[in-house]
Amino acid sequence: VSSFHLLPRLARNLIRLGVSHPELDRWKGVYRRAFTANEIQLRELASLRQRLADGGVRALAVGGAAVIARACADSGLRPMDGLAILVPPALASRAFDVLHAEGWRGPRFSPAVVATRRGDRFERPDGRKLDLRWYLLGENSHSGADDSVWKAATSDVPAAEDLLLLTCVDGLQHAPEPGMPWPADVWALCESGAIDWKRLEAEAVTRRVVLPLRTALRWMKWLGLDAPIPKDALARLEALPVTPFEERELAAKLGRWNAPARLRIAWSHHLRRATAAGLGPVSTVAGFVPYALGRLLRRPAAPSKIGS
Amino acid sequence: MSEPRYRLATPEVIHQTIDGEIILIHLWRGSYHSLHGCGPLFFDGLLRGATAADLVDALAAETDGERAAIENAVERMVAELWRVGLVKAAEGEPEAAAKSPPPPKRAFVYPQLETFTDLHDLLTADPIHDVEPPGWPIISRDREGRG
Known about the structure:
By secondary structure, chain A is mainly alpha-helical. Chain A has helices at 3-17, 24-54, 64-71, 92-101, 111-116, 147-152, 160-171, 182-191, 197-207, 210-222, 231-239, 244-254, 259-277, 281-297; strands at 60-62, 83-86, 119-123, 129-133. Chain A contains 14 helices and four strands. Chain B is an alpha+beta fold. Helices cover 34% and strands 22% of the residues of chain B. Chain B starts with a strand and ends with a helix. Classes of the chains: A mainly alpha, B alpha+beta. The interface between A and B is medium-sized, with 23 and 20 residues.
C-alpha cells in the first residue's frame, strides 16, 4: 500500500542508515523525480495563490503541498499528485474567475455548485490538475463549517490536525486501495509531532466524523504502519460514542461505490447542513431533492482535453 | 580590481543533496542537473558567494588533489555552471563560512555536471519502469524508442 509514495522516504532512510540494496539507485531516482516535480508544482502553487490574492481571495494549500509544508523535512519525500487549494465559500466565485483567467479549464461557477459540493476539478491543457475546494470536508459543506480551519491556519496552510482529519476522512474512501498516499500522509503528520490531539478530537466530534477518523487510524495498525499516536489520544477517540447515522454513512463509504451508496452519503452530508442551519424535518426533506440533484448530476461544463 | 565572486542563481535555481550528489533544477529554463565527483565539496562556497580561489581552497583542504589539477577543475566547472545558468555574479559582501574542524582528506575525483534539458519529457517517464539501473533521470532506450 502506498508503495510508490513511500519510495522516496525509503531511499532517504536507507541512505541515512548506510544500507545498500540492489534497487536503491532506482529508488533514489524516484526521490529525484519527486523532488523535481514537486518543486515545479510548489512554484506554480505559489504563483497561483499570488494571482488569487491579487483578486482578493485568500487560499490555503491542502493536499500534498500542505502535507509537505507541515510534515516533511524536504519536498522530495512526498510525491504530489497535482495541486489543491481551499478558498472561503463566499469567495469561490472570484476564485473561479481567476482560475479561468489563468488558463485553467473547468466548470463555470454557479451558486448552486457552492451550495451542493465541496469543490471542483480544474485542468490545464497539458494535464496538470487542480482541486479547488471551498469546504475542507464534503461531510461539512455548510456556512461556517471551516471557521476553525481558517482561524488555526498558519502560513496559508491548515493546522496539522485539520490536515490529519482531512487525510483520514478522505483516505477511507480509497482504503485500502494500493498506491494511495493517505497512510503515508497520516504517518508523516503523526510523526511530525505537530498534532494538537485534543483539538483534533473536538473537531471530529463537532463535525461528526469520529468514526471515519478512528477507523482510518485503526487501518494504520492493520497496514503495519506504526504511526506515533499517543495512547491516551487513541483511547479517548475509541471511547467517544458514535451514532447509527455515522455507522451507516461509513458503511456506504466503504462498500460498493454505486448510486444508492452515493445517495446515502449525500443524505448524511445534507443532514449535517440542515442541522447546522436549524431546519425542521419538513424543510430538511424538501431541501434534499435540489441538494442531491446538484451533487449527483453535475458534470464539468468543459470536458477534459488532456493530451490534445 | 577584486576577483569575481560566484553564487547559486537563486531563486530560479533550486537544489537538494542526496547521497553526496547535488541536484539542481533551473526552473526558468526547465533543465535538470546533477553535480557529483568532488563538486559537492565546493558547493557550499557557491551558496555564500565565493571566488574561484575560495573554491580551489575548499577542494584543496578536503581532497588529496594536486593544486594545479584542482585549479583546472574549478575553472572548468565554474565556466560550465555559468554557461548553463546555475551560477551568477555575487553582489554584496560574501557570507562567512561556518567554522568546523577540517574533515579527513578524501580522494580527488574530477567534479562532473550532468545536464538534462528536456525536463518536461523526463517528468512524463515512469521513474520505476522507464529508467536504466542508475535510476531517474536516466531514461531507458526502450522507452525513448516508444516515445
